[in-house]
Each structure stands twice: as structure tokens, then as C-alpha cells.
């Protein structure tokens, strides 16, 4: 059938459409770029800030604390690098074939579920690490008893507030991403054809 | 690339209606569709910088636009894709149809769009790209499937659409 006689094509091309506002696109571009840079800068700055704190207090920290801090820092560097890489994809565009794009999209949502899962496990892992850390401080008698109890109380207080918060946040994210994955799978399957 | 360059601006203007149709395929809600259209246009504009001429500019624009639209529906999947229509801006038609003709055409079109929105994403893409005038090879290239597969998917989808139009 010739294109100009195809009723479906004729109907399709005659549809009423909203046209894009090109001046708004230019403005949006600046906003998107700024948002991208702000997120990356925030991630990197938070890391630099932690490094600076450790650096400035290096002489005050005992060997055990310093080692623990360095391990946490190294894990954070890997985390920030990975999250920055994920951001690069989520804000941009793709000129890959759609099949490839969909595979990447599915992988990204699966990665988001893994990150949320990781955050959930991080809650009990950090708590366990803190217990081991304080047990070490107590065993090696690093601090006098009154100072040790003061530090332990402060740490327990912070944990009691922060950790449940992280747990709830990560658990909500996990539920959201699982729902997104299931909905995308449904969209890929469609209802007809 | 801080401002729209003249060339890019020209490409976007030439493909504005096409981008509007891609947005309408994936998003039924009027306000969300406008939002999606802006996102798609921005994505196409960013991608134009990397266009190497491996395909026609229309194929390239459609590929980037569909990818962006799929990302949009993936992250806004909880909202229904079929929604009531709101006000629309009409392009200049070649002839002025009567009010009855307009209503009839609008009903047929909504029926067709409703059917398309229920199709799997790949089928949706194949059928709309075909209606935009792309060849089997161009559709296959954009979707990442073989030409014969594109042909099979398209014929099946067209059959469903034609049947629903006749029955409707």
C-alpha cells in the first residue's frame, strides 16, 4: 500500500500535537547541568570533608580508630565513584539502539535495588562494627572509664537516631525500585500483540 | 553548548511535530506529556552534538526520543498511561474538515492511540516509527532488532490496529 493511501499513517500524521518550547529547553539545560554538578560536588565535597577531619585529627587518633577510619574512607571513595557513574547515565540521553537502552535501564533499576539492599545491610554492619570498635577500645583500655562511657553514650545516641532513619529510607527506596522494575517489565510485555 | 545553535534549533523545529507525537505515544496525561516533550527535546538537542551521519537525522532523532520516553515511563510507571485528554494545540491542517469530520477523526485517532499504548514497548516503537515513514531497515537499526523481525512485529501490530478500527 502506498504511504499516502495508508489510513493508519494518514490518521497518525494528522493527530493534534503540542509543540516543544525551544526557549524553555535552553533554560532546562542550564538547570539540568547545575543539578548534575551540584550532586557530584556534594558527593565529592562530603568525602573531602571526612578526609580533612581525619587528617586534622590524625595525631589524636589511636591506631585502631585510624585504621577503621581509613577503611571506611576507602569504601566511601568506591561508593562515590559508583554513584557518580550511575548519575551520569540517569540524567543524560542515549543514542544506543532501544533494545540496548532497555537492557541498560533494567540493569540500572536492578543496581538501584542492590544499592538500597546494601544500605539496609549497612545499618546492622555499621552497628556491629561500632560494637567491635568499642569492645576493642575497652579491651585495650585506650580511654579512662569515664571518658569511654561518655563516648559510648554519644555514639549510642547518634546510632539510635540515624540508623533507624537510614533503615526506613533504604527500605522505602527498595520497595519503590522493585515496583519500578515490575512496572517496566509489564510495559515491555504490553497488554496486546 | 550553552545556547541552542542555529543548526540544532532548525533540526528541532523541523522535527517538533514528530517529537510531539512520540510524547503522545508514551504519556496520556496532558501536563505530564508537556513535561515529557520538553525532556525529549532536551535529550535530542544534547544528542545532536554526537550525530555522526550513520543514519538519517530523522531516524537518529526518533531513536533518542524513544529512548528518553522509555526512561520516562520506567520512572513514572506508577501513573496510568491512559488518561483523559485535555486541551490541545492543533497543527495547521491541509484542509479544514467539518466539525463532524473532526470529531470522527478524533475518535478514530484516540482509539488507535489507545491500542498503541497497550502494546509492548518494542511493538509500540516499531509501529509508530513505521507511521513516521521509516523503512524496515531504519526501524531495525533504531530498535536493535533484525529487519525481518521488525517486519513481523509491524505486520502483526498493523493487523491488530486495522481490526480494532474496523470493529470500533
Explain this structure.
Chain A is built from five helices and no strands. Chain A is mainly alpha-helical and about 190 residues long. Helices cover about 80% and strands about 0% of the residues of chain A. Chain A has one domain (about 25-190). The two termini of chain A are about 20 Å apart. Chain B has about 170 residues and is an all-alpha fold. Chain B folds into two domains: about 1-80, Rna Polymerase Sigma Factor, Chain: A, CATH 1.10.1740.10; about 95-170, Arc Repressor Mutant, subunit A (Orthogonal Bundle), CATH 1.10.10. In chain B, about 70% of the residues lie in helices and about 0% in strands. Chain B has eight helices and no strands. In chain B, helix 2 runs parallel beside helix 4, helix 4 packs across helix 7 and helix 6 (about 120-130) packs across helix 8 (about 145-165). Chain B starts with 5 loop residues before the first helix and ends with a helix. Chains A and B meet through helix 1, helix 2, helix 4 and helix 5 of A and helix 1, helix 2, helix 3, helix 4 and helix 5 of B.
Q: CA-to-CA gap between the ends of chain A?
A: 22 Å
Fraction of residues in helix of chain A: over 70%
Please give the radius of gyration of chain A in angstroms: 25 Å
Q: Quickly give the CATH architecture of the largest domain in chain B.
A: Orthogonal Bundle
Number of strands of chain A: 0
Termini separation of chain B? 48 Å
Low-confidence stretches of chain B: 83-93
Protein chains sharing the most extensive interface: A-B, 49 and 80 residues
